[in-house]
Amino acid sequence: MPSVTVFQQRLHQLQAALHRAENFAARHPRALTASVVGTLSCFAVTAFGIAPLAPDAADLPRRTLVETVATNDIASQLDELASHAVALTRAEATRSSDTPESLLKRAGAFDTAAAAFLRTDPLGRRVLQGRAGKMVHLTADASGQVQKIVVRFPAEKTEQQQSHFTRLTIERDGSRFTARTETAPLQSQVALGNGTIRSSLFAATDDANIPDAIASQMADMFSGDIDFHRELRKGDRFSIVYETLTADGEPITWDGGVGRLLAGEFTNNGRTYSAVYFKDSTTGKASFYGFDGQSKRRAFLASPMEFSRITSGFAMRFHPILNTWRQHNGVDYGAPTGTAVRSVGDGVVEMAGWQNGFGNVVQIRHGGDRSTVYAHLSKIDVKKGQRIEQGQRLGAVGMTGWATGPHLHFEFRVGGRHVDPRAIARASEAVTLPGSAKAQFQATVASVKTQLAVAETMGGVSAAE
């Protein structure tokens, strides 16, 4: 076996090679050179030793094998490493005051050609068009020249916006740029949260970093148990389990970045209510249920909007345009223009279009000679003859027709006669859980009980796989 002197000679040779490499690095200051030399230093000071394998190891036969390993010259290795381009990737959110130049500069890129492309190309312009806050992922080389830009938007088609997103990719191709868009599915993960009521539901969910959309769903989940306008008490508590949505693994920054509320517990005035979202795998029907299997859902929702304020009820009122006292045959809900409007029950679209003082209006025909009307819409998202499910989006709040401000006028008719929508919702039959789904339901309840127990002990909100 080689003696200690031989190892010392090899160590001196490695140290000499290292010295030559350091001199070379000083003459050739390339990217990553210092890192490579530091790595070689670690190898150069390795110690060697042999330990006996057994008490009689000295009696074992010995053979010395010598093998020559061909390696590239250190200088050529450093040259090759230095030739690799260094890329910088940054993520920046767009601002309302942004120009192509200011966005690129903030991301560490200085590229007039890229700025011109963002200003003139139809797809390139979409990076800064619309609402600010879009997350832009930009890759540039060491000189600041843009190599790639990726931006994610809501899906182009309305019916896909809850499940998909649009990915815009801009890439350098020589001295030119190419752009393309593609639709990809959103991914979901589970989040837990809890909170305590100090003043209002939304103030409590804001304090706990829970999205407003989830707060609205929670109000909907427990609307049959709690009047969130009148019955909330300071000190009421809640714990929830819900979905958050990501695009390419990153949280969504636009509206709709959350999925559905999966389960919740709400303690109001000393009494605790529990509910879980459950979808029957056989029928495909989904609803909120109490842990005892009793449905929280009735045939008709109490409101065509998730959470809003009533500005005019089903009663006599002084008409703001006609300036006369007359019966108001519906309920008006005040809300900002663009707020989603949903169907209160399953049915078929009987009318979708313009109708005199109602402006843009949708009328849904339900079973039992019942129908509902949604008026003054800024946008209509359904067509005549289309089958609609409870909770499905019909359009958006507006002030078309005879309206003095943005609001939704909602009517419920039975046999052509106007009735109070809130009375119909309270008296409507509950949706029952099929007997065939009880085993699956109990398994779901057992799972969310564990998650809610964890959520109750947390402060704020947390994500869980």
Automatic annotation (TrEMBL):
<dbReference type="InterPro" id="IPR050570">
    <property type="entry name" value="Cell_wall_metabolism_enzyme"/>
</dbReference>
<keyword id="KW-0482">Metalloprotease</keyword>
<keyword id="KW-0862">Zinc</keyword>
<dbReference type="Pfam" id="PF01551">
    <property type="entry name" value="Peptidase_M23"/>
</dbReference>
<dbReference type="InterPro" id="IPR016047">
    <property type="entry name" value="M23ase_b-sheet_dom"/>
</dbReference>
<keyword id="KW-0479">Metal-binding</keyword>
<dbReference type="InterPro" id="IPR011055">
    <property type="entry name" value="Dup_hybrid_motif"/>
</dbReference>
<keyword id="KW-0378">Hydrolase</keyword>
<feature type="domain" description="M23ase beta-sheet core">
    <location>
        <begin position="327"/>
        <end position="421"/>
    </location>
</feature>
<keyword id="KW-0645">Protease</keyword>
<protein>
    <submittedName>
        <fullName>M23 family metallopeptidase</fullName>
    </submittedName>
</protein>
